[in-house]
């Protein structure tokens, strides 16, 4: 059930004051809840105002995501078709070779991507895995693309090795609010995700971390997820907001779909609380209408994943994305 705003929370924009500080603790959970409960038009206006302070509002950054090692993951994430716990039709594969990745990266750059992300279905990589990934990072960097990886949990040593190979960003999503985490995943605890982010940050690699909405959570839980992200010190440079893609065979298949306006609210709150971050439309965009995507850009989203697939699920194709961006007069970076 969605959390409904109280009379006190229905604050008009001219009386609502966002915290100016960007240090740890600047955003209390109560403030984020108050923010997400603002009247919709006021919330979008505030988000657009913040967005224009830090970014060109008519520009988005393009990223491409390639699954370099698919399936067979020992984790039991309830949303994930790559988990070995569920029958989803996803076959486990070995890590891709250098030439396959090079070709994919060349194609991504040709189609306008500035960042090339590589994902592998591991709980955590082994030393031999890190050696292979380091080689792939060097290939991507050699093509003058930003390199990003998402490989599961990461030790301090492995984070340092990836940094030495030239890694620019590491993605490790918090997925959901800490109070809801054990309902979604039981094979690891929330603190392990925070530890990975700390290892990445300490290695000098930029952090990419967001979450998944539409997993049955209420509005306050979505606020709690953004609160956690906004109070990382510093907050992530990239914040992917995923809308659950329901895959038959996973425990979350059949979950009631999230109202698109609630998704847009989440984007707006992410923009306001993390004003300098790239807020990215990620999984679930295939099922969004052009109007919903346009409102997401208005709410402060300024990065998208594009290409044929997003790991194992569909993603809008290149021509469709280009047509939409052209209609909205949005340039790419």
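Q: What amino acid sequence fits the structure above?
A:
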């Amino acid at each position: 059930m969605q959390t409904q705003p109280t009379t006190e929370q229905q604050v008009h924009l001219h009386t609502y004051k966002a915290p100016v500080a960007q240090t740890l603790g600047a955003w209390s959970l109560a403030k984020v809840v108050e923010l997400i409960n603002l009247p919709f038009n006021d919330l979008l206006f505030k988000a657009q105002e913040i967005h224009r302070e830090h970014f060109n509002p008519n520009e988005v950054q393009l990223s491409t995501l390639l699954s370099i090692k698919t399936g067979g993951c020992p984790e039991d994430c309830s949303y994930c078709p790559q988990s070995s716990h569920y029958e989803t039709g996803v076959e486990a594969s070995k890590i891709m070779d250098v030439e396959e990745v090079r070709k994919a990266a060349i194609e991504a750059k040709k189609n306008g991507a500035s960042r090339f992300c590589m994902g592998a279905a591991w709980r955590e990589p082994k030393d031999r895995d890190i050696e292979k990934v380091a080689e792939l990072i060097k290939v991507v960097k050699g093509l003058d693309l930003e390199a990003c990886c998402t490989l599961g949990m990461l030790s301090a040593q492995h984070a340092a090795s990836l940094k030495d190979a030239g890694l620019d960003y590491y993605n490790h999503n918090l997925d959901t609010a800490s109070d809801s985490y054990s309902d979604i995943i039981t094979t690891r605890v929330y603190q392990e995700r925070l530890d990975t982010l700390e290892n990445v940050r300490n290695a000098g690699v930029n952090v990419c971390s967001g979450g998944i909405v539409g997993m049955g959570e209420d509005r306050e839980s979505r606020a709690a997820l953004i609160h956690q992200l906004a109070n990382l010190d510093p907050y992530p440079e990239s914040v992917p907001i995923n809308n659950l893609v329901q895959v038959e065979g996973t425990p979350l298949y059949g979950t009631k779909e999230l109202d698109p306006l609630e998704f847009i609210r989440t984007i707006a709150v992410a923009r306001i609380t993390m004003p300098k971050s790239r807020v990215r439309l990620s999984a679930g965009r295939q099922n969004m209408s052009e109007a919903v995507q346009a409102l997401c850009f208005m709410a402060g989203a300024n990065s998208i994943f594009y290409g044929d697939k997003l790991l194992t699920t569909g993603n809008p194709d290149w021509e469709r994305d280009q047509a939409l961006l052209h209609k909205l007069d949005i340039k790419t970076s």
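Q: And what stands out in the fold?
A: The CA atoms of residues 112 and 266 lie 27 Å apart.
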